[in-house]
Amino acid sequence: SKNAGRNCFHVYSPELKAEADQRNVLEIELREAIWREEIELFYQPVIELGTGRVKSVEALARWHHGTRGYVPPAEFIAVAEAGGLIVELGHQVLARACRDAMNMPGDIKVAVNLSALQFASANLVDTVTFALTQSGLPQTRLELEITESVFLADTKENLRTLQRLKALGVSIALDDFGVGYSSLSYLTAFPFDKVKIDKSFIDRIDRCETVAVLKSIVQLAKTLKLSIVAEGVESSEQVRRLQSLGIPLGQGFHFSKPVPLTELSWQAPTARRK
Ligand code: C2E
Ligand code: CA
Ligand code: CA
Ligand code: CA
């Protein structure tokens, strides 16, 4: 019957139903928020550790909900993916980030996160092209961040998409590097420009096992001519260790939380003397 699919929801409980209802409400509200272009972008700088200079900024979506306050992207990106809204949302994020970047210094790149579903969507390359031409942003100033989860799907098609994006002249970063199972094989199989080492490694940077792993990542990145960023840097001790490992770039609360465009500061916070 028509309802057979819905009735497949075997494990039924009031709690689950309440949770499902809440999700539906969130999805409806998100749909409206996207339609009204109410999703904001915050930006978090990526710092050159040696100089303290901002090299790029990462766009991070923020939904300022009328009654719930800021709904974290970890919550609404999943809702957007489940409800098929991610393509439209991704479109807006790309367009806004490129426009915002036109108001940043000309040597600053802007990085935009792409979800797995967005990456697999047929119109991604057109969306990126459109965002660039509409804003006038030079393609070399746009970076796209993707995680390994993108490659769980058909890898031949993904390789083609990556190559088409690279042909546009944008750069590609592998995000959350090291948390997946096959990160190393993806690094060699796909034409990335940058790796972003996951925060979990930076949290454990005082352990010698972590140092050993980071050393081999640095070595591999050198061989593959990839740039490396450490994510989730929270202390000057971590900065010191990253520098001694030869990791040139860092991002994290130690430097700045994600902030609205108007609060970004381009000066090195404190000129670090050697
Ligand atoms: P991500 O791409 O790995 O982004 C880094 C996350 O770590 C951000 O969380 C950032 O605020 C947080 N972070 C940065 N530095 C530190 C630090 O020093 N300490 C700690 N504890 N956290 C730090 P956020 O903004 O909540 O975003 C979470 C995830 O949501 C992102 O992870 C990304 O996967 C996704 N996301 C955010 N915006 C977008 C978007 O526009 N499109 C898509 N597809 N995904 C997005
Ligand atoms: Ca990211
Ligand atoms: Ca990340
Ligand atoms: Ca992440």
Automatic annotation (TrEMBL):
Keywords: Membrane, Transmembrane, Transmembrane helix. The keyword Nucleotide-binding does not apply. It comes from the Bacteria. The keyword Membrane applies. Residues 23-272 form the EAL domain. This is Diguanylate cyclase (GGDEF)-like protein. It comes from Bradyrhizobium yuanmingense.
